[in-house]
Amino acid sequence: MAHLEPQALAQFIDHTLLAPDASREQIATLCREAQEHGFYSVCVNSGQVPHASQCLAGQNVKVVAVVGFPLGAGLSDSKAFEAERAIAAGAGEIDMVLNIGWLKDGMFDQVHSDIARVKQACGSVPLKVILETCLLNDAEKVKACEICRELNVAFVKTSTGFSRSGATVDDVALMRRTVGAGVGVKASGGVRDYPTALAMIEAGATRLGTSSGIAIISGAQAAGDGY
């Protein structure tokens, strides 16, 4: 892959704030930063979608809503309803957490139907499926990616950023190999500086979920913890 300058990474970035105590002022700042720096989107909890959509009205920045977040263990109908209402409120993409327990129990038909139910609710709105790779072995990661590829979701995504660890280059590469060229791969969780972001893209990521987008595109090193 040709070398990408830090600023060129802006359109890979979902500028993210998913903290449960995020204030309306912080969401407004997130939206302003995304607009100023040319990020692809902001990624927020579904309850923040109306406010974020209002902040970004008329701007070329999408609002991404997380659904069934961060555990993925809720009822499929609840996830689908949340996706539907988030889209009605202005979400242009949905990031859902798959049912991790079902996947680990080998309940693959149920995992398939859970994702399919949310995808149906999304209609033409792109759906990303969060695997929570740190809780899975490689065979489970592959199976999840195969199900997502079969359903033709828009992206598979590594992590919520709220579990034991986040994205790794090896997981991104494994996911890319499994889904092929037709499905996006989003690396999220722990992508906090330019070298890490570039490594994820070189491994096959086509989107980055991070709260450190400004540091990444300025070429700065990571400072402290964060999504």
Describe the structure in your own words.
Strands 1-2-3-4-5-6-7-8 form an eight-stranded parallel barrel, surrounded by six helices. The model has no long low-confidence stretch (mean pLDDT 95). It has one domain (9-218): Aldolase class I (TIM Barrel, Alpha-Beta Barrel). By secondary structure, the chain is an alpha/beta fold. The chain starts with 12 loop residues before the first strand and ends in a 10-residue tail after the last helix. The protein is built from nine helices and eight strands. The longest helix is centred in the middle third of the chain and has 15 residues, at 108-122.
Percent range of helical residues: 40-55%
Integer average pLDDT: 95
What is the CATH T-level topology?
A: TIM Barrel
The SSE string, one letter per element, is EHEHEHEHHEHEHEHEH
Main beta sheet, described?
8 strands, parallel, barrel
SS-based structural class?
alpha/beta
Number of helices: 9
Domain count, please report it.
1
Uncertain spans: none
The CATH superfamily appears as Aldolase class I
> What is the β-strand count?
8
Secondary structure elements and pairings:
Blueprint: E1 13-17, H1 24-37, E2 41-45, H2 49-55, E3 62-67, H3 76-88, E4 93-97, H4 100-104, H5 108-122, E5 127-130, H6 138-151, E6 155-157, H7 169-179, E7 184-188, H8 194-203, E8 207-210, H9 213-217
Parallel strand pairs: 1-2, 1-8, 2-3, 3-4, 4-5, 5-6, 6-7, 7-8
